[in-house]
Amino acid sequence: MSKVAVKKLHWRSKVQETFVPSGELGIGIGGGADYGEFPFITAAAGGGITVGDIILEIGGTPILGLTLGDVRGLLNSCPHPIRIKTVSPGSTLCKDLRLYLSKCFTPGSMDSQLQQVIRENLYLRAVPCTTRQPRDSEITGVDYNFVSVEEFFSLEESGALLESGKFKGQPTFTTPYLNNL
């Protein structure tokens, strides 16, 4: 007997688009980069939006990597009806933003491109940390938060970093979420 290979559908093939009419918003939103999560639906009045779904776009604007306050602000400022794109969480795309950012995807793939969008949105609010010394033109708290190696590992261990990495063997690039967004 031969085993039949079952091809998993990519999460992108499961994206749903919903138009929410004026005055009927009735949805709650949780998560956001400040909580280390993708934004997701916490309450829904129906109409194709499901509690637990990850929100990808609001009114044509990609929102992954934005803070919860920014997502709510965008939702409240969009002209009606509001177009919302969502997807049900799965094994590749779950609510955990840190987990998604830690994955290695093929350069140029849909997931790799999505990681880039997330990082671009993160840097609208986040000031990254580095263990290197500041350059002459850099301002602490504006360009980077300059921390010691010990502080870096403490932040990493506490879960306060969305992602981290090394450059030339030194911990040098991080995206903090709770305290700096």
TrEMBL record:
GO cellular component, one term: cytoplasm
Topological relation to the membrane, as annotated: Peripheral membrane protein
Keyword Transmembrane helix applies: no
Domain PDZ: 14-90
Superkingdom of the source species: Eukaryota
UniProt keyword terms in alphabetical order: Membrane
Domain Guanylate kinase-like as annotated: residue spans: 98-181
Biological-process GO terms, alphabetical: signal transduction
Pfam family, one: Guanylate_kin
Major localization class: membrane
Compartments where found: Membrane
Name this polypeptide is given: Guanylate kinase-like domain-containing protein
Source organism of the structure: Sinocyclocheilus anshuiensis
